[in-house]
Amino acid sequence: QVQLVESGGGLVQAGGSLRLSCAASGTIISANTMGWYRQAPGKQRELVADITSDGITNYAESVKGRFTIPRDYARNTITLQMNSLKPEDTAVYYCNFRATYRRDYNFWGQGTQVTVSS
How far apart are CA 13 and CA 109, in angstroms? Predict the structure, then answer.
């Protein structure tokens, strides 16, 4: 099992910045991917950004150039640095951990609200 604890989020004006953090604990399979997803009201959950244990990053087109996802491998922690926020970034953001070792593993954090006012 992997536990994910998120922190950060809140209310910010358009153009502002926020930082989310997610710490993973438990049985950490070394080859893994950690990332952030978000879900706005009435919409499906979508990938925002993720990073593999090899440091390969992947960003949604809508956040490229605005968001970054640094990773602290020693602490099994990822951060989502969100700059130039837009009202359309408003959503619940979820931390995700996935790995494959004999079978697929997929874990989610509890979610944290990000609200961007115009």
Answer: 25
Q: Are 69 and 36 in contact (CB under 8 A)?
A: yes
Task: Measure the CA–CA gap between 116 and 75, rounded to whole angstroms.
Answer: 29
Q: Convert the pLDDT of each residue in 30-81 to its tens digit.
A: 889 999 999 999 999 999 999 999 999 999 999 999 999 999 999 999 999 9
Please give the DSSP secondary-structure letter assigned to residue 31: S
- State the sign of the Cα–Cα–Cα–Cα dihedral 62, 64, 68, 73: positive
pLDDT band at 93 (very low <50, low <70, confident <90, very high): very high
β partners of residue 39: 92
How far is C-alpha 67 from the chain's CA centre?
A: 10
The token duo for 35 is 């990332």
Question: Rounded distance, CA 118 to CA 115, Å?
Answer: 10
Tokens of 45: 């959950």
d(CA 102, CA 89): 36
Tokens representing residue 114 in the block:
């990000």
